[in-house]
Structure formats: C-alpha cells, structure tokens
TrEMBL record:
Domain ABC transmembrane type-1: 202-390
Bilayer-spanning residue ranges: 24-44, 83-101, 122-141, 208-230, 251-277, 323-346, 367-389
Lineage of source species: Archaea, Methanobacteriati, Methanobacteriota, Stenosarchaea group, Halobacteria
PROSITE patterns: ABC_TM1
Main location: membrane
Cross-referenced InterPro entries: BP-dependent_transpt_permease, MetI-like, MetI-like_sf, OppC_N
One GO term describing the cellular component: plasma membrane
Protein name, entry field: ABC transporter permease
Entry keyword annotation includes Transmembrane: yes
Protein source organism: Halolamina salina
Keywords of this entry: Cell membrane, Membrane, Transmembrane, Transmembrane helix, Transport
Entry similarity comment: Belongs to the binding-protein-dependent transport system permease family.
Cited CDD domains: TM_PBP2 (cd06261)
C-alpha cells in the first residue's frame, strides 16, 4: 500500500533546521513585548514626566525632580535600580516561572521531591513572603523618616528605662518605657521606624539578589556554554580570561571608585555583577562539557542544527539544574556582601538596607539592641532559607550528585 510519508533519507533536514531556528517561543515573544513596554515607560519617564511635565501642567515644584507617577497622583519615583529590577523580574517570569507551567509533569515531580524536605518548604514560604512584602510594601508604606522626638522607642514586649534620652509614646511601668504596636520593632537613634526600614530593606535585598544574579548568570552561562561547546582555541582563550578576571581585586576597584565618585547601591550591584561571574562560568562549563558528549547532542549535530540552536535549545536547558542551584548560592552571597560593606561604612548611606540598619545600631547595643538584632535576624533567616532551598533543589534536580556524595 502506498504511503505519502517520507522516509528518513527523503527528509530535507536543512529545511527543517532552518524552520526550527526561525521559531519564536512564547517565552521569547513575551519577553520582547514586556521589555518593549518597559522601554516605553522609561522614555515616558525621561522625556515627558521629568522633561516637560511641570510646564505642561503649570506646576511649580521648585526645580525638584518630578516623581514618575506624579501625573496619576501616585508620588513614587522609579529609579535606575527599579528599571533594572523590573527587567530582572520579566526575565525571571518568562524563563523560570513560565517554564514551570509549560512543563507541568516535571514540575509536579520536582514539587513532590521538594515537599519531602520540610526545612526547604518553610524556607520557600519565607522567601516568598520576603519577595511579596519587599515588592509591594514600599508601594503602600511611606518611607521611614527621622523624628528625633521618637528616638529609641522599644519594640513590642520590650522596655527601656526612662533614664535614657527618650520621649516614651507607650505606657510607662515602674519607670520603664514599654513598647507599643505603633512601632512594633521600635525606632532608631534618629527616630526612624525600624519596621518600615525592614520592609524597605526587603526590597533592597530583592534588588541586589535579582539584578546582580541576573548579570552573573547571563554572562557566566554564555561564557561557560560557548567555551564547553566550541572547545579548542575558543575554550582556551575564554578560560584564560576567566583566570585573569578571577585574580583581579574587585574589592580594591570598588574602594577606588568609591573614593573617586562616591558609593551607591547601583555601583555595587553592577560592579560586583560584572566581576563575579567567573565561578559560574567554570561551574556551567564543567556541566556543559558532560552534556556535549551525550548522544542526543551528537544526533542534533548530525541533523544539521546550527551552533546557536544547539547551545540555546539543548545545552543550556539541560544544564539548567546546575544554573538554578548556583542561583541559590549567588543571591545570599550578594545580599551578605552588601550587608558587610554597609557595616564597614562602605555602602550607600542613603539606602535603607538591612546592612545599614545593623551598622547604625552597633554603637547602641548596650541599651538599644533591637536596632541591630531586628535586621540581623531577618538577614540571618533569609540567608539560611536560601541555603536550605539550595540543598533541596540540588537533591530534586540532580539526585545523582546526592547519591555520589553518600
């Protein structure tokens, strides 16, 4: 009986490969559209709001910077970090969250494996809480401001003797000022509400984690996969460049720029993001080297697929487990690095980060320990949550590694 189905040697593999290379995934299209919207918003912010908004509406703001959303009555200004954070969220949504939905069967399998690890589940809940509050909290909660008549207010369930220079707003029992729900975590020596600083610090931590990690993962994955697949001279040149950059004193460069131009969170994120991808590149390369020897990669090469398609559609996705587990190590490392620099007085003093708050309270540990302890506990539990989650992801995504370690 005749059939119209072509045999293997009758298929035009060049044509199929070209058509495959021209395919545009939903993830790619969604990313392009979302980034396009962000670009339009940036142009609106730069040319319409800050450039001609005052003259168009006849408002006299005394030459001050006009907040981005002032025309719609929302006094919130979008900074450079906010735009970068939005870009990182778009990429995270379309290349991490959406693939989980697209691959429901594998997601359910990994979820079953994850649920067996209770510390990891608690950690996941904590990190989701930090993310949601950090993103939405500053939108509805006003920024912390100095109010000297409110300095050293104790948190709830704590008290401080009125012998210290305070103006107690809570009840006084036996000569001691009691904490109140009005300031649940107390206030600083400048009267700033620690609860508000903690909320804004969540957003700062998320910005540091997402933006810096996005830079590191993008550059490190690109260098690692290209080096592993290309091999030869390309591999040698890229790895020698990694060796050179790893030996470069990033901290000294940061101090030099800090001395010349001054510090800033934007500087910290970009500088350490661009000079911290070497370990990721080596890690991804080692995993990608193993993948290039797999039979399915050789079959794809024989089919005539382009180098770009092999790397994008096969090597990178199949190295995703190592990339994801590496993310859980990078994010807490960057958050902790910012806290350490802030504690040493080398951070951005204008940013209400956890590190700045810890640094601000170190001279008051004797009678106002909550100033340091509150952000310190949030920082500790966040770093610990990433570590627990990273271990669980490694067990779920790469069980062979766990078996080898046993």
């Amino acid at each position: 009986m005749a059939t119209d189905r072509a045999t293997f040697d009758q298929v035009d593999w060049d044509q199929i490969t070209e058509e495959s290379d021209r395919e545009l995934s939903v993830n790619f299209l969604g990313t392009v559209v979302s980034l396009g919207v962000l670009v339009l918003l940036m142009l609106y912010d730069h040319f319409l709001v800050t450039g001609s908004y005052d003259s168009m509406l006849g408002l006299d703001l005394g030459g001050q910077y006009t907040p981005t959303f002032a025309p719609i009555g929302w006094n919130y200004d979008v900074t450079q970090l906010d735009w970068l954070f939005a870009v990182s969220l778009v990429l995270f949504g379309f290349y991490v969250v959406l693939p989980l939905y697209q691959n429901a069967r594998m997601t359910k399998y990994y979820w079953r494996e994850m649920k067996r690890n209770r510390p990891a589940m608690v950690s996941l809940g904590w990190l989701i809480f930090i993310f949601v509050i950090g993103v939405l909290g500053p939108i509805v909660i006003p920024a912390p401001e100095s109010e000297l008549f409110l300095k050293y207010q104790p948190p709830v369930f704590m008290e401080i003797s009125q012998n210290y220079p305070i103006n107690c707003v809570g009840p006084v029992v036996d000569g001691a000022c009691q904490g109140t729900m009005q300031y649940p975590l107390g206030t600083t020596q400048n009267g700033k509400d620690i609860f508000k600083i903690i909320i804004y610090g969540m957003q700062i931590s998320m910005k540091i984690g997402f933006i810096a990690t996005l830079i590191v993962i993008t550059v490190g994955t690109a260098v690692g996969t290209v080096s592993a697949y290309a091999g030869g001279l390309v591999d040698e040149v890229l790895m020698r460049w990694v060796d050179i950059q790893q030996s470069f004193p990033t901290f000294i460069l940061y101090l030099l720029i800090l001395y010349i131009w001054g510090g800033g969170l934007f500087l910290f994120i970009v500088l350490f993001g661009l000079f911290a991808w070497e370990g990721t590149a080596r890690y991804v390369r080692s995993n990608a080297l193993a993948k290039t020897e797999e039979e399915y990669i050789k079959a794809t090469q024989l089919s005539g697929a382009s180098t770009y398609r092999i790397i994008r559609a096969h090597i990178v996705p199949n190295s995703a487990s190592s990339i994801i587990t590496n993310i859980t190590l990078l994010v807490p490392a960057f958050i902790l690095a910012e806290a350490q620099l802030a504690f040493l007085g080398l951070g951005d003093s204008a940013v209400p980060s956890w590190g700045q708050l810890i640094s601000a309270g170190r001279s008051d540990l004797g009678f106002a320990p909550w100033i340091t302890l509150a952000p310190g506990m949030f920082l500790f539990f966040t770093i610990l949550a990433f570590n627990f989650l990273g271990d669980a992801l490694l067990d779920a995504l790469n069980p062979e590694a766990d078996a080898e370690s046993e």
